[in-house]
Amino acid sequence: MDINNCVALVTGANRGLGRAFAQRLLERGARTVYATARRPETVDLPGVEVLPLDITDPASVRAAAAAAPDVSLLINNAGISTGTDLVTGSLDAVRHELETNMFGHLAVIREFAPALARNGGGAIVNVLSAMSWFGGRGANAYHLTKAAAWAMTNGVRLELAEQGTLVTAVHLGLADTDMTAGWSVDKMAPSDLADAALDGVEAGSAEVLADQWSRDVKSRLPLTPEEFNAAMDRALAALMAS
After folding, report:
1. 126 beta partners
2. What's the pTM?
3. What is the Cα–Cα distance from 108 to 164, expressed in whole angstroms?
4. What does residue 231 show for φ and ψ, rounded to 5 degrees?
């Protein structure tokens, strides 16, 4: 797929990774960029077409799909992190995070898949995380939702192959966004993440491991749980000491 002259829709485009995606799409020649957000008045990027979209609200998702029938590239970026543990944390918070980070993405895909088929197949980018593969105290709800979103992405890829839709999973460690503001470590620039993802789409890649952290984490998956957890403990300690 060629990014130049495509018609793209980005969820959560008012800040962070979503805003970076929208900006790089414009800079790389996209014909139209629909920038969506729950509060559309917070989208401040010139040159985009602003649409309201709450990915957890079925009526809002249907309205966005109706307003953007020409989409050929869908960037599923919107997400949340509640800092919730699974056993002792609020179950409502866990459900809210799952509704957003997995079911919300799936709802958007289900509504836009027919348009992508009509427009030649196109592509979907699901912004996931290296935390698709590991958890940690204070972030296990997020781990759950990203693992579920990874599985959903793999299933959707199989189901949409017949209509010629590329489904690309993008994994990363830490990007320099509001969500990671409290981490004083090296972080990936949002524009670099957007470029890595869009390069992957143009190359027809089913998966983009956008940084060394995500590549290292995935390489440890064949380990036993004990070995994996010990390796992650060492890696996290080294990250915090850097």
Report:
1. 76, 169
2. 0.94
3. 18
4. -65, -40
